[in-house]
Specification:
The chain contains four helices and five strands; from the N terminus they run E-H-H-H-E-E-E-E-H. Helices cover about 35% and strands about 30% of the residues.
């Protein structure tokens, strides 16, 4: 899979010293995603059992022991993962994961 906007993850980690604990987890996550070849949400669930599948190709991943939420949109035919949001649970609660 190809990841679009990896810079969003880097910016998030560097935006606050409180977010530095996410860096290692996000590096691991991005490495797994790059090696993945998903054709459906079932493939995502196979690799990430705790991922939440939403409508329209949206998926929510728990990062750093569920301290952070990562929302992506996946284009399965083109094998592209678009980073839509990364933040704490409080920040996540303030967004609509279906439309962000």
């Amino acid at each position: 899979m190809r990841i679009i906007a990896v810079s969003t993850l880097k910016t998030f980690c560097e935006s606050s010293s409180a977010h530095m604990d996410a860096k290692s987890a996000l590096l691991t996550w991005s490495g797994l995603i790059r090696r993945a070849d998903w054709t459906s949400p079932a493939d995502v669930k196979r690799d990430f059992g705790n991922a939440s599948i939403l409508q329209g190709g949206r998926v929510i991943f728990n990062i750093a022991g569920n301290k952070y939420r990562l929302v992506v949109k996946i284009n399965y035919p083109y094998r592209v993962v678009y980073i839509r949001f990364i933040g704490t649970h409080t920040q996540y609660d303030a967004i609509d994961a279906q439309t962000i």
